[in-house]
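Here is an idea for our session: we take a single protein and study its fold together. Once you have written the record down, we can walk along the chain together.
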Amino acid sequence: MQTIDVIIVGGGMVGASLALALDRSGMQTALVEQQTLQPSSFSIHDPWQPRVSALTEASIKLLKYLGAWEGMLAQRVCPYTHMTVWDGEGTGEVAFDAKTLPQKNLGHVVENEVIRNALLQQLASSTVKCFGSQTALEYKLSGQGGEIILENGEVLCAPVLVAADGAESRLRQLSGIPSNQKDYSHHVLVTTVETEFFHRYSARQVFLDSGPLAFLPLQSQDGRYYCSIVWSLLPAEADRIEALSDEAFCHELQRAFENRAGKILKVEKRFRHPLRQRHARQYHRQGVVLVGDAAHTIHPLAGQGVNLGFMDVAVLTDELIKAARRGDDYFAPHILDRYQRRRIGHNSLMMAAMRGFQNLFGADDLGIRWMRNTGLSLTNRLPLIKEMIVDQATGLSNDIPEFIR
């Protein structure tokens, strides 16, 4: 049996970043993941990965602190300096520009696999005990952390277990932490497309009756232009769109996006996922702590999912660092309560905002349509309001721990 300070279950972007952050704070950490934890060789000419994230400046600060940002830049990263949102069923439109900010960009669009691979590269040179390609066969929760029995027979023991094992977190379920769930009644289609026009480093989103459609800019390659698309659709409409040939899909996408990207020249393989909102009622119980999707899943409307997870990592690490400096037991319930208070309210507000946007733009009432178009147009003429919105979108106005500022 190996006894260590903390065991993290789940080696995705959030779990890997937490392992690195705790390792930097001097804690003996183990990371358990079903998939490999070995970084892959990567070429900029590799096929595009379908899942991307729109990283805020706050998330990038964390990734820089962890040493992963340079590795990401060496792979594929695309900044965006503009953002345009409009109502496809009306005339309302609002545009944002990074010229109003101290930093050069509103954010960066990065393939999730690029983010994770850069984190794995850092893990390879850390003191984190990595147990890749391992399934946890059994958990023994003691009320103060517990044991994990791995399929290779090894037994790990720690005073705290961190659930970073995704939306269907087995560890969350075993700990008895309840969660609220709501069906968004939408499915999302994600893929990469080649476009006729250059995106000019602009993230663009149109609200349609069937759901929002986002075009997120990707790096150009050999004079060819690419965007990642995230298309939220009612299930019946998703069935229809999914069944289209590539040529018909490109035509439908081009029409839905009002030809703003020119012709859609090519589409990669399409992936479809149902959308559900989940939010744990508490973020820790008897030595089990939740981070990322294990604690909350959100509509991809604003690309905030992984950013919320990265801020979970930053705040949890911040509280543990402060506790260690005070000589506290850093996984005592009152320390984890501090983490919960700092994150659960912010995440709840973000979820409520996303549901509000979905309801507002999904409404078919003429009065509501008039109000939302008027609101978008009015917002576009109010620089102070736009600056406040952009400040929120970068994540810098939120509770950013001192150690990554």
Residues 2-36+48-181+276-404 form a domain with the FAD/NAD(P)-binding domain fold (CATH 3.50.50.60).
